[in-house]
Design a protein that fits this description.
With 218 residues, this protein is α/β, with parallel strands linked by helices. It folds into 2 domains: 43 residues, no CATH class; 147 residues, Vaccinia Virus protein VP39 (Rossmann fold, 3-Layer(aba) Sandwich). The chain is built from 7 helices and 7 strands; from the N terminus they run αααβαβαββαβββα. The protein has a 7-stranded mixed sheet. The longest helix is centred in the first third of the chain and has 22 residues. The model has no long low-confidence stretch (mean pLDDT 88). The structure holds S-adenosylmethionine.
Length: 218
């Protein structure tokens, strides 16, 4: 009996590879992961140093459906549009081809450079689409009557307060995926991760005025 167990153990030792990887493989994997993290942080993080931790939003491009949903909710509107955190410029390009005069505010200089070169390559004129390397929290948005956002749930209440202070009464705000808490929606399209919400600032202000004191904070 003991002999047969030893045979089994010997056999399994022969069949199963040792779990310790070769030192060269370990070194290469470590170097690869460090390199990937370096590229990721270079691409996603530049410009963020001066943004408070709770307002930091990383880069994540919107899907094709999301962009189409934004354009549906902007249907019939005209004028100036600000995309807050314009990423690679996809929302700005879609809106500018629908006739809006667009500004993409983006804190990541690599994404700004990429968007500008894409605009150049596509022959998009600067009065249709401009990309500005600027922190939108520190930007006065009062000259825009259309605003688009795809940010993060944790910043929506603070952004709501800023937009209510600055935007004109006829402004429309489009929020991708993450709605504004306590704002009544004008309309909403899509579902799941592509769900997109539209708000009219005059309606939001009127609604918040009807709430009892202290409840009209986001
Ligand atoms: C989730 S991505 C959305 C990108 C793009 N709007 C889209 O739909 O594909 C958010 C973007 O906002 C940018 N961003 C975050 N905070 C910002 C700030 N304070 N000022 C300007 N851009 C900011 C990020 O760099 C990132 O590109």
């Amino acid at each position: 009996m003991e002999d047969s167990i030893e045979v089994i153990l010997q056999d399994s030792g022969r069949m199963l590879p040792t779990s310790r990887p070769h030192p060269v493989v370990s070194a290469c994997t470590g170097a690869l992961l460090t390199g990937m993290y370096g590229v990721w942080s270079l691409f996603v993080m530049p410009g963020f140093r001066r943004v408070p931790w709770k307002l930091k939003v990383p880069y994540l491009p919107s899907s094709k459906d999301q962009t189409q949903n934004i354009m549906k909710l902007l249907d019939g509107r005209t004028g100036r549009l600000a995309d807050l955190g314009s990423g690679d410029g996809r929302v700005v390009f879609a809106a500018s081809s629908a006739g809006f005069q667009c500004t993409g505010f983006e804190i990541n200089s690599i994404l700004v450079a990429y968007s500008r070169s894409k605009a150049c390559w596509r022959g998009v004129h600067a009065n249709q689409a401009t990309f500005v390397k600027k922190d939108f929290w520190k930007t006065d948005l009062s000259s825009y009557n259309n605003v688009t956002t795809f940010l993060a749930p944790g910043v929506m209440a603070i952004l709501g307060d800023k937009l209510l202070k600055e935007l004109p009464d006829d402004a429309r705000v489009i929020a991708c995926r993450f709605p504004f808490p306590n704002w009544p929606q004008h309309s909403c399209v899509g579902s799941g991760l592509d769900q997109t919400f539209a708000y009219d600032i005059c309606t939001v202000r009127a609604h918040l005025r009807t709430l009892p004191q202290g409840m009209n904070e986001n």
